[in-house]
Design a protein that fits this description.
By secondary structure, the chain is an alpha+beta fold. The protein contains six helices and six strands, in the order ββββββαααααα. Helices cover about 35% and strands about 20% of the residues.
Length: about 200
């Protein structure tokens, strides 16, 4: 999660998607000059990072690390934002599992998305951006949430007829946003940064 430290610093954490003990393959330096590297996914805004790690640390995929600011890092020595295409094949294949875990761990945030989603235009609603949610499901969600806000993914699927696996739907949308940078609307990826800049 991104959190604000006691001194007001915005700390960004990420989950390691791939750990390359011998550095990045496209790093032209000799082997002895390379530091361990890898890829990570931001826990709050789902930004992708290419990171270099401290040589003395041994990490596993799924470890959580601090990527920003530099003053708060302990294991990461460098971090740069990257696009989905820049990820190693290992990081790409790990991505959907890590996204699913992050959605599950922060269930209330995503249940609140179902509770709070608003129209974007007269014809398009934020809920319609989720894969598989058409007019009928959207209206079912809107009708149910007027009665009482949803409190869990389980309650969502129980109360809205035809809505199965609302957590997987959110995870699928996050993956879509990561893979396709040309999507007109970003619902989850990079939202934290957009909110900070407003």
């Amino acid at each position: 999660m991104s959190e604000v430290d006691s001194d007001g610093t915005d700390v960004r954490r990420a989950v390691v998607l791939d750990y390359l003990a011998h550095g990045l393959s496209d790093d032209g330096r000799p082997q002895y000059a390379k530091s361990p590297a890898g890829y990570a996914l931001g826990t709050t805004d789902f930004q992708l990072y290419e990171v270099a790690f401290d040589e003395d640390e041994r990490l596993t995929i799924g470890s959580e690390v601090v990527v920003e600011p530099a003053s708060e890092r302990d294991i990461v020595t460098e971090s740069n934002r990257v696009e989905y295409e820049d990820l190693s094949s290992g990081a790409q294949s790990e991505l959907e599992y890590v996204v699913a875990d992050l959605v599950e761990e922060d269930e209330q945030r995503f249940v609140d998305f179902y509770n709070d989603a608003q129209p974007i235009t007269l014809r398009l609603h934020q809920l319609n951006l989720l894969p598989g949610i058409g007019k009928k499901l959207r209206n079912g969600i809107l009708d149910e949430r007027k009665r009482k806000p949803f409190e869990s993914f389980e309650e969502l699927s129980e109360r809205v007829s035809g809505l199965h696996d609302p957590d997987e739907i959110v995870a699928e949308r996050i993956i879509q946003e990561l893979r396709d940078e040309d999507l007109k609307y970003q619902t989850f990826v990079g939202r934290h940064e957009q909110e900070q800049n407003q």
